């Protein structure tokens, strides 16, 4: 039996970049509400990304756009990227001082930046029941 093929980090991230630019990496029902791309097009390590999430529709967060920073270190995709909310949000998986997301459950090599962002948008549905900071506030 053949050993599974392990896709190198750079190939996986190049594929994710292409998917992000084309908008094809985000499945329904999040398509059109989640976007991501490189923070610096000259970043040959493909490490630093920007992302945005439009809050879930028909919730108190549905009219807000949340900015995030995504960092894929050398251990990606064996480990999830570090994700930090720039826009303040009151969510159980988000550190209320730094904006850092604590954990992405179920992470494996087949997951992606889009997987993480869709997970966070799902979590926003529960978070919409909580008191939220005023729109436009950012973590320091």
From TrEMBL:
PROSITE patterns in the record: UBC_2
UniProt cross-references to Gene3D superfamilies, sorted A to Z: Ubiquitin Conjugating Enzyme
InterPro entries (alphabetical): UBC (IPR000608), UBQ-conjugating_enzyme/RWD (IPR016135)
Residue ranges occupied by any UBC core domain in the UniProt entry: 8-140
Name of the protein described by the UniProt record: Ubiquitin-conjugating enzyme E2 variant 2
